[in-house]
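queue> pop job 88
queue> type: inverse folding (structure -> sequence)
queue> payload:
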């Protein structure tokens, strides 16, 4: 695990913190559409998807959307937090043995013994904890776990080169979410990487067939495919 990975993972390993964050996650409710959109895009392009790998899966919300979209697929849940593992096992229990659980740090995927022929490697609201160098390394490692024609999907928060736009987006976002219970802050790598950082990192990882499929204020859905 890298130093950056240690900083990002530390608060999530505390059971009280992880459960408190999950209960206060009103932002997650706003992301139902891009989650469904991501699964629909993959279904249209790769309907026979069988292997899903979710990085930094947390409570397993994003993975569950794909498991519903692909009822014959199997998923690999991964996260650095054993506290999140317990919550994910409860959320994903209905899928039975279709889900395998692995405690894996996103900055050291090679240590996780993950499939190297995944149809989809997905992640949500995790990579924004990385700086630009860390993001490049993550996309490169993630791409190495994809089958030919496989998809990398990242639903994540992004920064802006202009602080005024960033402040405006964050302020307006509050109008469209329920009041959030108090939640303790956790590590972020400010300023957050932006859209161009993600596209540059995808290109550097060889994932040049890529798009920004959706954007809502400070959140983006990045999708990319390996060569078929």
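queue> result:
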């Amino acid at each position: 695990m890298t130093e950056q990975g240690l900083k990002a993972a530390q608060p999530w390993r505390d059971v009280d913190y992880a459960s408190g964050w999950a209960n206060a996650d009103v932002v997650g409710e706003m992301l139902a559409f891009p989650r469904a959109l991501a699964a629909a895009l993959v279904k249209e392009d790769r309907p026979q998807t069988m292997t899903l790998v979710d990085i930094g899966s947390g409570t397993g919300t994003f993975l569950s959307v794909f498991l519903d979209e692909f009822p014959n697929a199997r998923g690999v849940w991964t996260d650095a937090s054993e506290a999140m593992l317990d919550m994910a096992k409860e959320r994903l229990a209905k899928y039975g043995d279709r889900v395998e659980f692995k405690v894996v740090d996103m900055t050291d995927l090679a240590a996780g013994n993950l499939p190297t022929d995944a149809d989809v490697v997905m992640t949500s609201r995790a990579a924004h904890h990385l700086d630009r160098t860390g993001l490049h390394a993550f996309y490169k490692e993630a791409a190495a776990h994809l089958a030919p024609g496989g998809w990398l999907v990242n639903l994540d928060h992004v920064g802006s080169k202009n602080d005024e736009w960033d402040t405006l987006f964050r302020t307006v976002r509050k109008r469209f979410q329920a009041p959030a219970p108090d939640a303790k802050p956790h590590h972020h790598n400010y300023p957050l990487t932006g859209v161009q950082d993600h596209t540059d990192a995808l290109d550097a990882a060889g994932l040049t067939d890529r798009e920004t499929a959706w954007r809502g204020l400070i959140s983006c859905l990045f999708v990319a495919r390996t060569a078929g």
